[in-house]
Amino acid sequence: MDPSRSCHFGKIEGNGHIEIAATLLLILVLAPFAGSLVAICIPAHKGTASAWLSGCIALFCLATSAGLYPIVAANKVLRYNVDWLPEFGLNFTLRMDGFAWMFASLVTAIGLLVVIYARYYMSANDPVPRFFALFLAFMGAMLGVVLSGNLILLAIFWELTSIISFLLIGYWHHNANARDGARMALTVTGTGGLCMFVGLMLIGHIVGSYDLDAVLSSGDMIRNDPLYTTVLILILLGALTKSAQFPFHFWLPHAMAAPTPVSAYLHSATLVKAGVFLLIRLWPVMAGTDQWFWIVGLAGLSTLLLGAYFAIFQQDLKGLLAYSTISHLGLITVLLSLGSPLAAVAAIFHTMNHATFKASLFMAAGIIDHETGTRDMRKLSGLFKYMPITATLAMVASASMAGVPLLNGFLSKEMFFAEAIETHKYNLLDTITPYVATLAGMFAVTYSLRFIYSVFFGPPPQDLPKTPHEPPHWMLVPIYFLVFSCLVVGVIPAWTIGPFLHTAVQSVLGDATPVYSLAVWHGWNLPLFMSLIALVGGVGLFFIMRPYLATSIEGPPFFRRLEGQRIFERVLVTLSWKWARSIEMRAGTRRLQPQMRVLVAVAIVAGTVTLLSQGFKPANIVLRNIDPAFALLWLVGMVCAIGAAYQAKFHRLAALVLLGGAGLVTCVTFVWLSAPDLAATQLLVEIVTTVLILLGLRWLPKRIEDPDDPEMMTISTRLRRLRDLATAVFAGFGMMLISYTVMSREMPETISSYFLERAYREGGGTNVVNVILVDFRGFDTLGEIAVLCIVALTVFALLLRFRPATESLEAPEQQRVQNAFDDDHPDRKKGDSIAEYLLVPSVIMRWMFPVIGMLAAFLFFRGHDLPGGGFAAGIAMSIAFILQYMAGGTRWVEERLRIHPLRWMAIGLLVATATGLGSWVFGYPFLTSHAQYASLPILGKIPLASAILFDLGVFSLVLGATVLILIALAHQSVRAPRAQIRAAAKLAAKENT
Amino acid sequence: MELVLSAGIGVLTASGVWLLFRPRTYQVIIGLSLLSYAVNLFIFGMGRLRVNAPPVLEPGGAGGLLTHTDPIPQALVLTAIVIGFAMTALFLVVLLASRGFTGTDHVDGRE
Q: Which pick of A320, A795, A989, B65 has the fewest CB atoms within 10 Å?
């Protein structure tokens, strides 16, 4: 009878095939995750199978995405929506427009190529299925980021990419560099992601919706909001850390410890592009302001220049590519900072171009590493003779990276130069942009040339770990494809990439889409001259620097001391080690008592402050209407409580008896105040608890000090006790005041009336308490019996490893006296006295078994209508078992009865859950109950609600759990003698040797 | 009625809190049990104290708060009693295990 959770699919405008297409979006996002789950189950030696699986998934996703193109090309937006928590504006919305389509295709296409490449790159010694499982999961997360139609969903997928990239970068976790690089990437991008999350929530707060469409249509509202700057900074922290922009760029070079396919995928088309994606996605609503121009522009421009400059001085091939990636991401960021639609077009275009040439270059670097055993450019040279195909492909790709005409990199770089010259704002940053751009272009030519020249030309290589040769054919296929697209796009852009780019641009810019030309030749203009200067200058710079670079150490001069990594690590150590430890030293304690005092003090202060600030007035204490019998009862109760508190240290048994007294008073109170269900349960639990603690008593140590010796008490001890006493009295007095005040007020209207009215009509039972437990709030009860189950298992597991203290090992005094008596009398066997002891009570206890069983059945069946129910019946039945243990001893019982409490618990949980699931079969929500009465012989009319099945599960579980806990504890007395025998044998063996 | 019961709740709380601060594990376990009585009675009391009110409905009828006891605090307390037992059992076993490992029944595992 839980209110049903409605789950309907959102309306999708248009006709049937668009609805199917929208469902395809869901499949597109879920397929990689499903594939990842399958891949992780493939055994480690079947790497090829996992590669095939990943290839098929990537191909499927690519095909799906391609199939959706006609819809987005018609400028339609595909939406798939499932209400998740609509009250909080949180829906599972997937949304695909032209721009998201472009990214989805990039992610799946390059994913497919990387899978083919990785199949041959990964060594058979690596756990290959794990690689592909993570790879697929990453692809799914990335698709989720680009296809999210809800900001919160976007943040979730964003975090997923951070976490999975952490696992991918740290794939070779035996390597310390990989571990450090992975941790750094996670810390930087994860922190940024959290900032972004806050920023996105603020956007949701400003717009009033997390839906992407709603956000995209409220640009003015966001830009004019007083929170705009805060939002901007938070979101930029997310995007700039992810896209490795200055000053957060330092994690990317360290992430190069990942396997090369990971770098080729994460650092060309996906992970680092997620930041750019977010910037472009939110460009229409956030860009154009001065704050945006300065922050984004400054970060982008410094990244563009520094990245290119640092790249020149790298000796590691992948390090060079990493810094070049940073620089190119900076280029895109600068374009976005300008705030002009043409610049945004160039940014989108360059995002695609960079992905193609950079992925192919990473793959080439991986091949060189794979076939020569090193990535150090000081060792590599003259490889052209050994691997001409790889060399040719790498040359074309790096020419594209350098911006050589007739390649795709040239086109977007020309657009960048053209935009850099334009004046967007009258300030210094805008003025220096063209110069910085040309300089960075020059550096790009230098490092691209260096990449090619030092690896493929020059004298034949010396002392390489392996003899270089061409890689397997299929390892080159992905590079063929990528380099081919660099060429084709570079030569005939308008016919190849044109329509796709236009679709993407239109979906971002809408009506603001500018007129742009994708022609290769724009005539002799300023951007072309800038390109020429960059080309000539870059080549010249390379030849000037060549002698220095051939032997120099890693990293640029001067800047190599200013390493981001070292600063990062110092901050981490200070924060998470030095400061944390000093706080712990000052404010922390490992002792329980001070912690308890703080806990209670905080509770008291929180309660008092809340009550007083809300105007709490204690009710007047009226000494009327006091039932003397009730007062006498509670006089006994209070004496019991105080006595238990007083005696608990040295007279444990007395304290236990007094505790039981307080429990009985509680029980009588329940009877008195019309709560028979509670009274029955309380009484039964009281019995079980007492038995349990009695069982535990013998394992506790004997008293070690004199209770009332005044010599033992120092003044500080007395003061501490006085403080504790004052706290306790204050807490007790406070509770008394609060409860008296509440209880003497009128009862307000509560949901109780709802249950009272409907218990019979809808739940089919007259015992409202039981109907609430097994029907209205059945889900809560299911949770509670699960907790009970867990506790019983924990107790069982803890006792399995239990080793009693040595001084508790020997038999209890009474047993020793009885055994000594048997030994002294020749006519008696050992154990006779124990068997004869309490003979009459034990016979009675044995006979009680069927009686108590009957009582439990009685309690169980009447439960729905009269006081009783599964809880009470389960505990009653467990008492019947304990009595058998008490009467006959553990061995006697277990020779005669097979007791499987674990099975009972399992059956109980299964029955309760299955009852809940059963209602699904009839199309009702989980745990809907059906009520009917049936006439049975002898028992008469009993309610046959399906809730009774649920209650049966409760009964079985409570019985199993209680019996398991008690038996596990009782068994220790059987194990202890065994341990004693073992210890004696060990001692004897030691003496013999 | 109300005054007596709230005094009882107060005394149970005070005894429980006092024991919570003590150094022996056994004292803490008794203290927690006393506290759980106090809390259970407190929750029960939130439904107000009713003497001789019917806790179950007439077959076929519906009840109201004017004529019947409040079922919600009772349902809450009923499960709380059982969970309280589980908690006592778990704590007792942890106590025993800690005593077995460290040789002492001090809450910190050392004197």
A: A989
Residue count of chain A? 993
- A535 and A639 together in one domain: no
**Number of domains forming the structure of chain A:** 3
User: pLDDT confidence of A135, banded at 50, 70, 90?
Assistant: very high
User: Mapping DSSP to helix (H, G, I), strand (E, B) and coil, where does residue A614 land?
Assistant: coil
* Chain B hits for A865, Cβ within 8 Å: 56, 59
How much is the pLDDT for A445?
93
Give the integer Cα–Cα distance in Å for A196 and A350.
24
Interface size between A and B, measured as CB pairs under 8 A: 325
Give the Cα separation of A65 and A63 in Å (integer): 5
Is residue A132 assigned to a domain? yes
A144 and chain B in contact, CB less than 8 A: no
| Domain hosting residue A793, numbered range | 765-993
Distances (CA, A) of B34 to A671, A725, B17: 19, 16, 9
How do residues A538-577 score in pLDDT, each as one tens digit? Answer: 999 998 888 888 877 777 777 766 666 778 888 888 888 8
- Chain B residue closest to A770 (CA)? B75
Whether residues A727 and A794 share a domain: the answer is no
Q: Could you please report the per-residue DSSP string of A54-123?
A: HHHHHHHHHHHHHHTHHHHHTT--EEEEEEEEGGGTEEEEEEE-HHHHHHHHHHHHHHHHHHHHHHHHS-
Which residues, including other chains, have CB under 8 Å from residue A389's CB and lie 6 or more apart?
A470, A476
Examine residue A600 and state whether it is found in any structural domain, yes or no.
Answer: no
Looking at the predicted structure, is the pLDDT value of residue A860 above 60? yes
Mark whether A640 and A527 lie in a shared domain.
no
Q: Give chain A's mean pLDDT.
A: 86
CA–CA distance, B26 with B105 (Å, rounded to integer): 8
Q: Is residue A77 part of a domain?
A: yes
Q: How confident is the model at residue A876 (pLDDT cuts 50, 70, 90)?
A: very high
Q: Are residue A734 and residue A845 in the same domain, yes or no?
A: no
In tens, the pLDDT along A468-487 reads 888 888 889 999 999 999 99
Q: Which of A550, A568, A586 is the last residue of a domain?
A: A568
Report the pLDDT value the prediction gives residue A706, as an integer from 0 to 100: 53
CA distance A264 to A359: 5
Domains and CATH numbers, chain B: 2-51+69-102 (1.10.287)
Q: What pLDDT does A3 receive? A: 36
Q: How many CB atoms lie within 10 A of CB A961?
A: 32
- pLDDT band, residue A930 (cuts 50/70/90): low
Q: Is A533 helix (H, G, I), strand (E, B) or coil?
A: helix
| B35/chain A closest Cα distance in angstroms | 10
- Higher pLDDT: A11 or A274? It is A274
pLDDT at position B30 is 94
Longest distance between any two alpha carbons in chain A, whole Å:
125
CB atoms within 10 A of CB A323: 26
Residue A991 has pLDDT above 60, yes or no: yes
More confident residue, A417 or A938: A417
Residues A106 and A204 in one domain: yes
Nearest neighbour of A805 by CB, restricted to B29, B100, B107: B100
ipTM comes to 0.96
Judged by CB atoms within 8 Å, which residues 570-629 of A form the interface with B? Answer: 590-593, 596-597, 600, 621-623, 625-627
DSSP string, A750-790: -THHHHHHHHHHHH--SBHHHHIIIIITHHHHHHHHHHHHH
How close B33 comes to chain A (CA, Å)? 8
Identify whether residues A783 and A737 lie together within a single domain: no
- A778 and A685 share one domain: no
Amino acid A869: pLDDT: 84
- Identify how many contiguous H helices and E strands chain A contains and give both numbers: 40, 4
For the ranges A265-269, A436-440, A535-539, A565-569, the lowest mean pLDDT is seen at A565-569
A85 domain residue, yes or no: yes
Say whether both A853 and A954 belong to one domain. Answer: yes
